[in-house]
What does this fold into?
Amino acid sequence: MIQRVVRTAAALVIGNELLTGKVLDANVHALAGSLRALGIRLSRVVMLPDEIGILAAEVRRLSAEFDVVFTSGGVGPTHDDVTVEAVAHAFGVEVVLDPTLSDLLRKVYGERLTDAHLLMARVPVGALLCGSPEVEWPTPVMNNVWILPGIPDLFKLKLLTARAWLRGPTSFVTRALFVRLEEPLLKPLLDAVVARHPEVEIGSYPKWFDPTYRTQITFDAESAGAAQAALDDLRNLLAPSDVVRAE
Amino acid sequence: MIQRVVRTAAALVIGNELLTGKVLDANVHALAGSLRALGIRLSRVVMLPDEIGILAAEVRRLSAEFDVVFTSGGVGPTHDDVTVEAVAHAFGVEVVLDPTLSDLLRKVYGERLTDAHLLMARVPVGALLCGSPEVEWPTPVMNNVWILPGIPDLFKLKLLTARAWLRGPTSFVTRALFVRLEEPLLKPLLDAVVARHPEVEIGSYPKWFDPTYRTQITFDAESAGAAQAALDDLRNLLAPSDVVRAE
It folds into this structure.
């Protein structure tokens, strides 16, 4: 299988249950970690309610602006599952029953199968089904939009398929330094390091309630050498007693 | 204190650490629950990296479209903290040191105070400081944009202040029914109930890996009676043995 090279990604996370505080989303975190490991930059995440018009407009916008888009949620058979229809609407196509997905549903449910089960075989006209060896159920992909389920275990499973089909143009390396100094005292040193390593993305994260360290500094780069050089540069500006550990 | 009545809200969640999978965001969930309790509808959440131009454009858009906007993150003193500048940029104003916040920082840090500490006293010109009895540190509010810190404990603390200043036009009531039926079998019954209770927002959430129930049905309405009536309507369509519990 030849992986498609994509540089940027966006996610559209769908569900009233998230926006009303009933459920804490964990899919963005799983997606973000997977994409990072592939060298793909997750650039925008949007969370929206189950409303076709709003979702369709967002799919259209994200699909045009980013190389690949992942939707999460809204793919079941009930009235509040409107993702497939919204994606279809975004691209001006109809929704049809996919024969491969229908057959899979027939295999799973046998004589218990109803018309409602078959609603889970709906895809936008023109969608491809992407599979991978470790995931039996294929994922509908409409143009550059991957339609993933919202249930966290299933979402993560489908990420394995995405990992088989997609990769970034490069890979990211992350290093981290944990220090005892608070951010305001670190700032002048950090500014110097940021200025000297423009190719490294440096993040500073205070930890207010941890007894072991006060600030985590992260170094993200496309080369391990560059990330390490920036980390070493900062470490050399610090007293050894201020450094808790490097990762 | 007279609470301002707002109907819709949006959130702008800021930070490379979220989009690279280093950190799982929990602030959206906290915000969503708080707003729901206030009767305010959280309609859109956007997660973006630490880039001023991108953030400013989004603040402008969300501020125009929704009654109130909450930002999360990017308010510390380091190079990657750009939220205040982005909000200022969105409204075409400068950033200044606020004297109240400067004094608070001087009180906290005393002789240890540096110029870097004072970066945490920056606000967009024209921002108000909103306080509340239980939260000492006031929150900068620029037009309808509440600028909240990303650290989850502090974010939650600031939500107490928001709760003192804002409320929705009504309140939401949520009921739930947990049933043993899978969604495809529920669907025809659910469609009937949805059609008969247009004033109730009905959600259906399958649970794939729970031994006690297969689907949770939620009923959200502005009146307890309406939510309860829809729940009872569905319950009457089910065999008693299919119902696990109501909440």
Remarks:
- The longest helix of chain A spans residues 52-65.
